Amino acid sequence: MCRMVRAGTTAAACVDKGRKWTDFQITSHFVFVLAILVCLCSQFCELAYMTSIVLFLSVWYHKNREYKGVVAALDSVCAKSYFIYAVVQMSHSPSAAVFCVNATFALITSACFIATHLNTDPSLYECIHPFGLHMCPGLWALFVSCMHEPILLDAHRTSFSPEHCLLCVTPSSSIFPIGV
Q: Given pLDDT bands bounded at 50, 70 and 90, which one contains residue 179?
């Protein structure tokens, strides 16, 4: 949280003292970028759209040092909706193993959310939040894009083949040619 806002400084002053682009709270979003690329490659449009919106709002929110305002409210609603979508996708798991991996991502994300919202220690937030609420959901989105089908839009990926995207490896495909 922005210490200046706590001390009564205006939101504009907090924004002027925003996080650097190299701050881990910002750079930890890189997994979302990878997830978006895989989603676009595999024509998983709904997940690409949602991940893009969450990425944009989350980076904006953290760049402004978690200032409580409209961006924070939008980020919160979108992040929670994103989590709900992932849980719904978990209910569509194609196998027990895929369900277990989805459940693990859900538990890690939930535990980190609860830990950082019940304990208001800023150092705990700085340490746990990027891993549990940026990197874990980003990896979860990567997993969903490779192991699931869309449930909202474009129910049939018309021209998708795992060979078209080296980033997406499904159980029936390999990134290596036969014999390697």
A: very low
